[in-house]
Amino acid sequence: MNTSITPLHQSLTPEDIPLNQIFLDPNNPRFTVADWTYIPMEQWDKDDIQEVAQRRLLADFDVEKLRMSMEVNGFLPIDRVIVKKFAEGKYVVLEGNRRICAAKLIGSIAMDGSNVSPAVLESLALIPCLQYTGTDDDAAWVFQGLRHISGVVEWSAFNKAKLLVEQMEKDNLSLTEVGKRFGLTPHGAGQWVRGYSAFHQARQSSDYINEVDENSYPYFQELFGRSSAPIREWLGWDENAYEFTDKLNFDEFISWLYPRPKDDADNGGSKKGNFGNRRLARRDDLRQLSTLLVNTKELFEQFRNGVELEACYSHLLTRQYEEENKKKADPVLDLFNAVELCVKCIGNVPYKAMMNQSTRGEILEELRKLKDAINDITTPA
Known about the structure:
Blueprint lengths: L11 E7 L3 E2 L23 H14 L2 H11 L7 E7 L2 E6 L1 H15 L6 H8 E7 L6 H10 L8 H15 L3 H7 L4 H20 L11 H6 L6 H6 L2 E2 L4 E2 L2 H11 L27 H11 L1 H8 L4 H20 L2 H17 L3 H5 L1 H22 L3
Parallel strand pairs: 2-4, 3-5
Antiparallel strand pairs: 1-5, 3-4, 6-7
């Protein structure tokens, strides 16, 4: 063990720093690519450099969602921003660029006259930070690596949905309000909440109440994605009751997630379904299933009867490919397309071409040939 390495915590000092003294890192490890050009320290506080960093964070790193949440909740010092002093009264962010970017955006919105609560603005005045006083030039890489490689463990989708629902019920929030609290659009919040209701229904009133667990929640959430509308309709979603009304289809859907052994009927159905053997390998498979239901119900029925989804979907793609090739190889269709194009071209002969006697003669000669061809077809034998 190397005992000469100084523990990082000894190089970090708690300090509350005014937001206007904190600058985004233009050399943020999130930005770097193979041909990255390093921005020298003397330029870090320049307006154009900061603007470029802000635009990059907005474009690629979901800062807008964070801003929406922060505009409701204020700046939460759950994790302190880590900064390093690079000039008198000026600090560059080592870890926390997205949060600082979101905070500065809210400050700009307030200056433009938008309605931001005074309490939120007050939370942005002084930012709880940890000032790095060490000498490692790659400190930003170290701190971000600790956080994003081996640091914060992502919550499960089920826990996120549970929190949203509890917050809605506790504070009587609308989908729009709870969405803003957690940086989600109303549609996004609705997808989480409706998915949680469907999951709860499966746990309480399906034939699989002893099998359904948190592993399957993402599938229930995916039912409320835009591309899953056909499956949602097949299950009979009732928007007022927040439940599926076609109980038989709903139980069948759950059986795809927790298939029971085929020989279980002889044992009185005592064996539980196993999520590890599910017929829908990924939540995104619901999109393929919806495509089958809309385009080829025959293949959807084949899936219901036990054929693998991948085989059914591949068959659909093969059919579509064959149909496209058939259209391309149809000589009659080709003729109609050619005649249509010919009519358009003749109707749009450039004036300049007809003014040139040589070109005009060539055009008229080709039109004469076309006229003769038309006469051959239209003249009775």
